[in-house]
Amino acid sequence: MKPNQKGMGIMDKPPEESPDRQAAKSLSKIGKKFLVMSGKGGVGKSSVSVNLSIALSNLGYKVGLMDVDIHGPDIPRMLGLEGMLGVNENKKLQPLIFSENLTAVSIEGLLQNKDDAVIWRGPVKHSAIRQFIGEVDWGALDYLLIDAPPGTGDEPLTVAQLIDDTKAIIVTTPQEVALADIRKSINFCKTVGMEIFGLVENMSGFECPHCGKTVSLFGRGGGERTANHGGIPFRGRIPFDPEMVSCGDSGISYLEKWRESSVSEAFNRIARQVSEAD
Ligand SMILES: Nc1ncnc2c1ncn2[C@@H]1O[C@H](COP(=O)(O)OP(=O)(O)OP(=O)(O)O)[C@@H](O)[C@H]1O
Ligand SMILES: [Mg+2]
After folding, report:
1. Which residue owns the Cα nearest ligand 1 atom 3?
2. Residue at 106 is within a domain
3. How many domains does the chain have?
């Protein structure tokens, strides 16, 4: 870690093992890993990461959520988690605890001032993400979900390099401008050899609370067409629900508050597909 970042004291200590060895040791205790990515910003990656993690944890799995959006970390706010990462007796960083089955790590948990801008080049991001894996006491996990920033930059590339069995979950909204960028994500995965678990279409239709009719805010069906075209599995549609915004903003679990909603059903269906996958 760069010494000019506040709150990084623990990360400056020389590790007893090489960082690569530490990361490999952590990863050996983690079952399946999924990178949630998109071509375009704001399509709902962090919302999908959070709600899919909660849905999997509700199925009884141990889940870790790693926020590799270094410049715009949203996971702590969405999970309602505050404070710094602690250090345990093994001198490892302790992830933030959402529930017995779900823990999370974000760069925000290492910054004393949450409003500090993190201004890092690729190699520093690479070592930070490696430390998120190797210097964090994740323990034994069934699933590690990784929330990426938009696009195909340093963060997803680092994940591809460090975790060679990660599968990609590509999130899109249905409109054509988002779909054009998804094709870049698909090509990124092909280039770095990352298997694509599938594509999720978010903000797909809004059910009018007055008349019950579904309004296609951003069009509909484009995600499935793009998935079919790219030869990748289509994993489902998540409708638009304004409650997703207020829950995300206030750190309330949408899945707990709106258990029976069609959005919760959609997340639970995707979680089952994840759990049934090889
Ligand atoms: N299905 C949905 N219905 C309504 N609002 C949603 C839905 N999914 C996400 N949102 C809202 O859209 C906004 C953007 O979502 P989110 O932050 O998850 O996107 P992102 O792809 O992670 O963004 P970024 O590219 O900035 O990381 C948030 O306010 C979120 O609450
Ligand atoms: Mg995000």
Report:
1. 240
2. yes
3. 1
